[in-house]
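Hello K.,

You asked for the raw outputs rather than the summary table, so here they are, unedited. I folded two proteins back to back in the same session to keep the settings identical. This is the first:
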Amino acid sequence: MKKVFVLDTNVLLHDPGALLQFEDNDVILPITIIEELDRFKKQAEETGRNARQVSRKLDELRQKGSLIDGIPLAQGGMLRVALCHRDTLQTLPPELEGDRGDNAILAVALELKRQCDCPVVLVSKDTNLRIKADALGLVAQDYETDKVNVDELYTGTAEVLVEAEAIDQLFKQGGVPLSAEFLPNQALTLVDMGNLSHTALAILDGASGKAVPLGKLPHGGVSRILPRNREQKFAFELLLRDSIALVTLVGKAGTGKTLVAIAAGLQKVAEEHLYTRLLIARPIVPMGRDIGYLPGDITEKMNPWMQPLYDNFDLIFGTQNPMGKPSHWRHGHEELMEQGLLQIEPLTYIRGRTIPKQFLIVDEAQNLTPHEVKTILTRAGEGTKVVLTGDPDQIDNPYVDAASNGLTYVLERFKREPLAGHITLHQGERSGLAERSAILL
């Protein structure tokens, strides 16, 4: 049965393409949404860009007919702007009377429910608005087009029971076919069914479809960093494989996501010279209350945001403590930046760039929207490798959650692609205190 979907402004600000995501159903935009889009379009950040994009799309559709009467959409539905009259607002309970945007949207949805024989659904990312709609007898839903099922999130690993001969074949012949189907570049632990303590680590080669052994790490570790657990070994395998252009690393605090990514990037840039530069970027999203504007030039303003990255470089180069060092002593990242091998910057200025032949790490990617991650990935030029790291349980961006952030969205969309790989890291390695805190708190 055909449905009528009434959209909230935040749906369009989250996904400017939402107008066309409801198949052959009718899409209704309360007039107050146009007013709110006009207010948001002046912002310079992502919400402002999305507001302007929606306004341009509506103006384009307006050329095909009247927004009040309805404009046919390509999928078979109808897009219409609905007015909210004062007498319609007066039908709301006294607590919800007034000309607030949310109240106007509720009033339009209630009026449509009285007029239409088909189901009317209010779509909003505002939890409280959905609760109010439910209290008024309206069907209310979150916008879930770009959401993933967090409970079934792809981990990138699997255990496989095999005969002992298969493990021998893995190392003697450099690969072994498997009867079960796995995803490209999936990390596998082959377990001898006759002796469960006899195991081997492998990865499913996207080209041959066989399980192949992990590559040998450089003597002394990757940029002096040795993997401490199985997941970190798998992560290094994906990071160091030149055929994999996109790697996503997910894990709780202290599992080493950023550290292994930086170590692999340094190996590829400074040792193997496969890439011209290690480029690291982070979204500028504060945890908790922001302290306001920071003084200084762009480098000085960025220092508090990029300090977690500098800490990882100090750990790799052993430059944590400057006490007793000579006058020319510098932190681990400073010399690399002077040589042009390392660049650390915010994501604010990445739009419009082309990034060729670079090892790009995007840290804290769980704070990005799917649209922002798409913008980043489409900047990758020829020969560039992109690594996204983050923890969906540590989101500071109020516009996304664990199911709708850019990191998990990309993870799910690319898991069947031969050019992509993913690993979820579980074991904390920062310290005993950090590990227990992540578990208990």
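The second followed immediately with the same parameters:
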Amino acid sequence: MKKIITALVFSAATLSQLSAQPSQPLSLKDCRRLALENNEQVMTANNAVEKAKLDRQIAFAQYLPKVDGSFTMIQLQDQDLLDIGDVLGLQLQTRGTYLAGINVTLPLYAGGQLTAANRLAAIGQKVSEEQRRKTEMQLIADVDNAYYQLIAVRAKVQMLEAYAQQMQGLYDQVKLAAGVQMATENDLLRITTKQNEVSYQLQKARNGEQLCGLALANIIGIESEKLIVKSEEFATASDGADSSAAGNSSLFTLHSSPSEDFSSRPDLLLLQQQVQANEVLVKKERSNYLPTLALIGSYSYHDNLKLKGELNLPSGRSLDYNHTIRGGSPYAMLALKLPIFHWGAELKKVKKAKLSLSDSQLQLQQLERSMRVEVRRAVQNVTDAQRMVETAALGRQQADENLRVMRQKYDNQLCTMTDLLDAQSQWQQARSNLIEAQAQLKIYETEYLRVTGRLQVQ
């Protein structure tokens, strides 16, 4: 008993330690995967694809023969019939009579309606798949947006924390200098004021980090308390990093020619499929003019149908007559249906289908123009963002060097406290600009891939 209690205590302690451990930090790839797994719209799109596959199988089944069975049980009172020949008092007994049959129907020609139905089902499956891809791409774009915003705000928090440490070090240095009459109380007051400003900015950035974390957790479908995100994406924004690598992760260089091809974009493919579907609908409406032909085969079996009466013999005697009718009867036939006159209704349906086809073609032309503008705007945004990263990286290098020079001058009493604080403010602004430029570049790159239909969902 003591061993069991010891084992239970050890297991409980182990579980508590495991539950206390933090979750594995999530990368961008992990966030995308969780979003695709937990998003309700993606699940609905998956169900739509499965339903489209079933519709295609149902449409194909129309080519195949249909087999139907029937069974009928009759339970009626006996029916008196007229005398027939030598049979007197004839009765028809149907109690327990049953009919069983099987029918086979094979469509031979349906005027092209079956072919049109199968083509529409195939188009419907493609449409559902492209709709799912569109939903997944938009979700990934939302995840990237929220992810890089969180990373950018977190980098700003780290930068402001480093800034606060610098200000604290400067405060301690000036306080020692003020103690030996080498600095004034006004210098300490100015540093304290700057510290309060940095503290306010830091608290504001931390609040923004929490809000960005909530937004990302909501998109990927997990609790915000369990959200732990890797923060190495903007390592170039922290101390000691090589700012020359700030723009090396761009999708394409400034001197390359990014493709403006958007032929694989889901929105475009969806409308192209709509045009094809309307073309099939025109043919389907025309098929209403054509005859339909089907082959029908059947076999029915009946049993327990009885005739009962009296039979007059030549000798003058009577004999009870009882006969059970049973047997089967197969048959086959061709069924032909030919439309002759419907007051022009079928012609009007064809005209209506042609108008729908024309509308979809016009929508496709309009969509291609708007997509072309959207893609060019996305390309321009990526190019401008890359230039901004390079400019911000250069500005950060200059700000770092300026701060280093000003600290040396201040230590040698060659510049004022105002010059040093201005250099530190420029250092903070330069790093903040670099963080924002890097995050915006990542977001623009994802948007470029989305509008060109090349954003990989896996």
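The CA atoms of residues 410 and 416 lie 6 Å apart.

Happy to rerun anything if the numbers look odd on your end.

Regards,
P.
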